[in-house]
Amino acid sequence: xxxxxxxxxxxxxxxxxxxxxxxxxxxxxxxxxxxxxxxxxxxxxxxxxxxxxxxxxxxxxxxxxxxxxxxxxxxxxxxxxxxxxxxxxxxxxxxxxxxxxxxxxxxxxxxxxxxxxxxxxxxxxxxxxxxxxxxxxxxxxxxxxxxxxxxxxxxxxxxxxxxxxxxxxxxxxxxxxxxxxxxxxxxxxxx
Length: 191
Description:
Layout: H1 3-21, E1 24-28, E2 36-41, E3 51-53, H2 55-75, H3 81-84, H4 91-109, E4 112-115, E5 129-130, E6 140-142, H5 144-164, H6 175-190
Antiparallel strand pairs: 1-2, 1-3, 4-5, 4-6
Helix pairs in contact: 1-2, 2-4, 2-5, 4-5
């Protein structure tokens, strides 16, 4: 682990600690039929009447920080010897990783919300729109189902793109080379 990776790891640990000390809370009101609506971030060890920790959103926050830490560790690693000959390494893979990290942060900053009066028990609830997380969301509830789907799709698409842009190393064999080798083996077996 190099120095830049250590710094990224320390930043990730600090972010995780901050998320756990200031978790997201929902406000549960009798006027709204005990429907929890997003209320903000409060100190974990304080007294917060009629508020409960939004465990789903907290889990997503923790997952995104861990994924972004893994991305930072990949981006900041030392290049293998075969890539040191080429300056920059695989730029497409690095760009994909950076875009994944940016997308995950944006998805958490602008999550899907629905108005508390439109809340249903459907598998995929309706939503009002994407609003800034630190804005006035007293009348809205986070739609964590859609948020989970967004995060999963970003990770899946990013992983596929990262694999697509992977450089073939000289020791990897292409499909044509495998066919040619198989024909050589068959012809050698016939003799």
